[in-house]
Write a structure and sequence with these properties.
This protein is an alpha+beta fold. The chain is built from 5 helices and 12 strands. It is 18% helix and 27% strand. The protein has a 9-stranded mixed barrel with strand order 1-3-4-5-6-7-8-9-10. A two-stranded antiparallel ribbon has the order 11-12.
């Protein structure tokens, strides 16, 4: 009898602790900017998974850790493609080594820029919100949703309007090019894509990101992905320059920040050298 009571008590305690943890994560209140109202999301953030390889999940390969699907709706973790769009995605996958726009130094687009292997930095002041991405010098300025979207544009990073719903920043994104991919596996969208992003701090150093993606040209229904970014806390952490150089065929490729070809562009001493007579 005592054993039964003890087990029951332990179960109740475990449930209470779990419920308390869930409640704490749900009710986390971020710090405020100097206006005392705006949630403070400032900082450098980065994902810790490898969903950038394939957002539907992938096995470990070539030193890259495996990743589960970050597609949370539909429940099977698969993007609800139309039949003809599946064929296009398969073509992308076969040619991914050279066809991926990111490999050619094009900007990643939304939502891909959020879950790349490289960090991003959120910049804020009351009434202003922007994100700078390390890859390809990409950035986004979030405009208040009182301004209408631009029409007939197809930008790599789209056109963003935002609002606050409590402590959650909600962004509405349209006007993206159909050349952008969602990951290295060739998942894609058309110019008709409409994305609603949600940014919410679930802890002092964790930022939950969700994107609901709708595109009647490519998908049978809207779908949602979700991931978590972590605050980069190393001393001196900063966004570094990500550069590209053209090869002999005129195709641009990424070069490492430590590559001598990358370093030379910042060698301003060369500019001061006077030509010899």
């Amino acid at each position: 009898m005592r054993l039964v009571v003890a087990v029951a008590s332990l179960a109740m305690l475990t449930a209470a602790v779990a419920g308390q943890s869930a409640g704490t994560a749900k009710s986390f209140v971020p710090g405020r900017l100097w206006d005392g109202k705006t949630p403070d999301f400032r900082g450098i953030w980065q994902v810790r998974d490898t969903a950038y390889v394939n957002i539907e999940g992938h096995a470990a390969e070539r030193g890259i850790a495996a990743s589960k699907s970050i597609v949370v709706d539909p429940p099977d973790g698969k993007i609800p493609y139309k039949p003809d769009a599946v064929l296009t995605r398969q073509e992308h996958y076969r040619a991914r080594a050279t066809a991926d726009p990111s490999v050619k130094c094009y900007q990643a687009g939304v939502p891909r820029a959020t879950y790349l292997a490289t960090p991003l930095q959120i910049l804020q002041s009351p009434g202003n919100f922007a994100i700078v991405y390390q890859e390809n010098h990409a950035f986004r300025v979030f405009h208040a949703d009182t301004r209408p979207h631009f029409d007939n544009t197809d930008w790599w990073m789209g056109d963003t309007r935002y609002r606050w719903e409590g402590d959650t920043l909600v962004a509405d994104v349209v006007a993206q090019t159909d050349e952008a991919w969602l990951d290295q596996a060739g998942n894609f969208h058309s110019t008709e894509v409409h994305i609603v992003e949600r940014y919410r701090m679930s802890g002092a150093d964790t930022l939950e990101y969700e994107a609901r993606i709708e595109d009647p040209v490519v998908y049978t229904r809207p779908w949602t992905l979700r991931t978590v970014l972590y605050r980069v806390k190393q001393p001196g952490a900063r966004i570094i320059e990500d550069e590209c150089l053209e090869d002999a065929n005129g195709v641009r490729h990424h070069v490492a920040p430590t590559d001598v070809r990358n370093l030379l562009k910042s060698d301003y001493t060369r500019w001061k050298q006077r030509p010899t007579k």
